Structure formats: C-alpha cells, structure tokens
Amino acid sequence: MAIMSALDVFMRLLGEPSRDEFDLDDDEAVRFEARANHTQNRRRAVGGKLFVTDRRVGFRPHSFDDTLGGKHVDAPLEAIETVTTEPARRSLGAILRSPLEALFGGGLRARLRIETDDGDAELFFVDDIETAIDVIEDARRQRTASR
Questions:
Q1: How far apart are CA 89 and CA 130, in angstroms?
Q2: Segment-wise mean pLDDT, segments of 10 residues, the chain, 147 residues
Q3: Residues 2 and 51: beta-carbon distance below 8 Å
Q4: How far apart are CA 36 and CA 51, in angstroms?
Q5: Rounded CA separation 56/121 (Å)
Q6: What are the pLDDT digits (tens) for 26-53?
Q7: Helix/strand/coil (H/E/C) assignment for every residue in the chain
Q8: Distance (Å, rounded) from C-alpha 63 to C-alpha 146?
Q9: How many CB atoms lie within 10 A of CB 98?
Q10: Most buried in the list 42, 52, 82, 95, measured by CB within 10 Å?
C-alpha cells in the first residue's frame, strides 16, 4: 500500500482533477500532466492540473476553485503561437507598484506562458517549466507534421 504525502492528501480534499475527468475524444491521448496554478487575472491564481494531449493544452481547476469560478483552458495546438517563460517580478519596485499581483497573481515566480493566435496569453506555475515547454513544443511539431 502506497503512503500518500501531505500534499497528495490536501489535493485530494480540494478535489484535484484527474485524467478521467479531463474530457478526451476517443482517440485523443494525454502526453503530459502536472499540478499547476493558472493565473486567472492580475490578482488571482487557482490550483488544478495542466494537461497536454496530442491535440491541445488544457487546464482544469480543482473542484474547490472550480466552484469559485476558476477558469478552464483549452488551447488547440494549432492555435498556440509561442510557448515561453514569463519572468518573475521580484524587484522591490514591481512589488510596490502591484503588491496584489505579485502576491496573489503569481508575479513572484517564473511562469509558463502560452500565447495563442487570438492574442491571449495564459500563465501557469508548474514545477518544471522547461519540461512543460519541451512537451508542448514536441506535441505542436508532431501535430503539424501529421496534418
């Protein structure tokens, strides 16, 4: 029997989304999933899970934040223009100018930045940004090559 970490217990209590709850098409495959926080606006980031499939990048908030209006994200790979890192804003000036953004919107940590062809940018905290970028870029290349 596996012993659950305190974080695993806490996330289960919050209602962490599972692969089964991420609505997949019959022939769609998940390539990567990770716990993540998604910056909803300048003053709010919500917890949940980031999924990368062979067709899209998606985010589902855990049920607690979903109940409080946490935003779902579904970006088709074809619509993604760039995948980069959004640098942290740790300077004293940046924190003093926007303290709520720095504290609650995620400005104190570097984030995964996904820009789409409609001009939107989605920001995510993930533990291993470089791996997430590599997986998304690889999925985009494979999707383009198969078309």
A1: 19
A2: 64 64 86 92 84 96 83 95 83 56 58 94 93 96 85
A3: no
A4: 9
A5: 15
A6: 899 999 999 999 988 777 888 899 999 9
A7: CCCCCHHHHHHHHHCCCCHHHCCCCCCCCEEEEEEEEEEEECCEEEEEEEEEECCEEEEEECHHHHHCCCCCEEEEHHHEEEEEEECCCCCHHHHHHCHHHHHHCCCCCCEEEEEECCCCEEEEEECCHHHHHHHHHHHHHHHHHCC
A8: 35
A9: 15
A10: 52
Cβ 136 vs Cβ 83: under 8 Å: yes
- The confidence score (pLDDT) of residue 144 equals 85
Residue 69 sits at φ, ψ, to 5 deg, of 90, 20
Structure tokens at 49: 């899970």
- What length is written for the chain? 147
The tokens for 139 are: 């999925």
Beta bridge partners of 99: none
